[in-house]
Amino acid sequence: MLCIEITVPGGPEVLQEVEREDPAPGPGDVLIRVEAAGGNRPDVLQRRGRYPVPPGASDIPGLEVAGTVAALGEGVEGWRIGDRLCALVAGGGYATLCVAPAPQCLPAPSALDFIGAAALPETFFTVWTNVFDRGRLQAGESALFHGGSSGIGTTAIQLAVSRGARVLATAGSDEKCRACEALGAERAINYRTDDFAEVVKDLTGGRGVDLILDMVGGDYFARNIASLATDGRLVEIGMMGGGMSATIDLGDVLRRRLTITGSTLRPRTVGEKGRIAAALRREIWPLIEEGRVKPVIYRTFPLHEAAAAHRMMESSEHVGKIVLVIGGSARRGTV
Ligand SMILES: NC(=O)c1ccc[n+]([C@@H]2O[C@H](COP(=O)([O-])OP(=O)(O)OC[C@H]3O[C@@H](n4cnc5c(N)ncnc54)[C@H](OP(=O)(O)O)[C@@H]3O)[C@@H](O)[C@H]2O)c1
Fold it and tell me: pLDDT at position 207, please?
């Protein structure tokens, strides 16, 4: 197969296309002929050497793919050769073939092409488990999503709105803020020109929001705590701002009964990921089929231009997802 290797930790130029032996599906696995692979910020962290590969996972970057079933491992039921699917993987997505545990595979929605389907797993699994499982967001509640224009943010806005929540977001430019509002956010706040905590206070009549999904960390922490309502939940999923530690007034936690939590998706067990997949299939896949929820695709690149895809991701110019196109037109060199 063809794949992208991280030759040494470093800049985008360390991503090199190489040939490797085809992988074989183990018991319970599906071998996928990959048509498209989503790009995610954790791929950039892995490339820089700051996100170690979990034990047993492929060292090839790429956490999500879409394509067709090429072969089935022992004991896999419910899939046939040639079925269209997408999958969350712990690595190995930037390749023409990829192995995924069967519980982490979902049908590629018929409403989407492979590019759209490849843009689903990483952000939809992450948003589901953090916003609805850990964050317990309910219809009628309010949420603040930082990084509203990111792959995660564009997914979170749509899923929360579709389930009846009131959504606020932050983003780094007025243009990105308008994109968040077009996806259903009631108001997006340009964090470069406005203090989000002040705006949230104004927009909620001083009450605060029920849930905050944060990917910035550091100096956002105190303002996040100040922006939570009584019984509010703060869910940490990233540290784009660089700060790994923060100080908290525990009195706030006691008085307002706050919950502070967080998670990472990649090291979780196949069983846990399978439970998230089942919830997505039941609750969210119908909304995608109805066209009420869509992945936001900013740009595609052919596999051999993975370095250009990473450069774009690091520039943060994008709104939504950057996807590597691997099969079909990419093989013919027309992407
Ligand atoms: N815990 C998990 O399980 C999990 C899973 C997947 C992703 N993540 C994390 O979620 C985050 C988003 O991932 P993604 O793939 O959706 O990324 P992405 O599309 O590349 O977006 C990252 C966004 O972060 C914003 N940003 C960057 N630096 C910032 C700063 N200092 N302050 C505020 N905003 C900043 C950028 O928007 P602006 O232009 O608005 O600054 C950019 O749109 C990353 O931190 C990633 O590591 C966590």
Answer: 98
